[in-house]
Amino acid sequence: MRVLVTGGAGFIGANFVQQTVAERPEAVVTVLDALTYAGDRSSLAPVADRVELVHGSIADADLVDSLVAAADVVVHFAAESHNDNSLADPSPFVQTNVVGTFTLLEAVRRHGVRFHHVSTDEVYGDLPLEGDEKFTPTTPYNPSSPYSATKAGSDLLVRAWVRSFGVAATISNCSNNYGPYQHVEKFIPRQVTNLVDGVRPRLYGAGLNVRDWIHVADHNTAVWAVIEGGRIGETYLIGADGETSNLEVVRALNELFGREADDFDHVTDRPGHDLRYAIDASKLRDELGWTPRYTDFRTGLAATVDWYRANEDWWRPHKAAAEARYARSGQ
Ligand code: NAD
Ligand code: TDX
Q1: Membrane-crossing residues (predicted)?
Q2: Domains of the chain, with CATH numbers?
Q3: Hey, which residues are catalytic here?
Q4: Which of 65, 132, 147, 207 could tie 86 with a disulfide, CB 3.0–4.6 Å?
């Protein structure tokens, strides 16, 4: 099977490519990645001899056409992915997430290629802090940030291309991922790499916001489950019942570094900050038989801390630039 992975030099995409090469010897993997600040060739170093990396944009119609023509399936991870950046400058989010997805859809339409679109639970907006309501595949779209609005737009394009043009596509909407190779701008790697440097974690606002954490390896087994068993045109929600407040995450990290749990700083809150995300993954579990391997968040978190401690060469080159961006917004 010839697999074209967009965004394969980013966090989730690189984990997907490494897992695919390890577990599916028959797969021939090509990565299309623009190598933005968030993409890193070295995330594919362990599989460099098995994977072709094409440096280019998903919004480049000619390049996309030739790569899609040579694929059996396109797995679409490429995106501008960070909410805080989308508040500072939404423009690349529209270009990559909306125009880029449109460009891919036109190519899979022309060539009749199977398409899987990787998306986020943030398209549904947020849930109240109190109560046990969860997102389901029928929750109305209500995105809050420029990032989530452009992901919502891309999801709706995929749905329309299925209905209007018969494109063979599926969509998955996953909750917050953690694990190796996540950019240091994101919450968990930012705090872990601060702690390595003896810098206190930085919590937006009161830290009561809740995220539904899933290990990236579990997200990726679910993506393969949808590619292989998902029904065309359907949306599958991916989550592993990992609801945890940001405050609890920071306390756990401090403890893993042998520090006082409450030794952190409160910093300026994110404008429009979503309160709580929670996923009902019963469709994925019941229909496709998927189950997560990482069921204890603290164990997965400890393994992730170990990875960042052991792989400073990977993250150190990105750290100063990420912190400089935060300094501009007082975070
Ligand atoms: P990331 O920012 O780590 O990686 C994105 C990758 O896309 C980078 O390698 C970047 O170079 C590449 N890219 C950006 N613009 C491109 C373009 N125009 N053409 C080609 N490549 C381009 O993001 P991530 O966290 O790995 O997220 C991957 C996907 O999963 C995204 O679609 C995101 O919306 C979705 N998602 C992420 C999470 C999460 O918690 N990180 C959760 C749910 C869904
Ligand atoms: O320094 C910080 N302090 C802090 O309290 C940072 C960087 C974040 N936060 C908070 C904001 C969020 O409540 O932590 C939470 C997680 O923040 P992010 O890592 O920026 O993730 P989030 O905004 O929840 O979005 C993530 O999950 C859904 C991914 O970045 C998206 O790509 C994905 O779609």
Answers
A1: none
A2: 2-178+213-238 (3.40.50.720)
A3: 121-122, 147
A4: 147
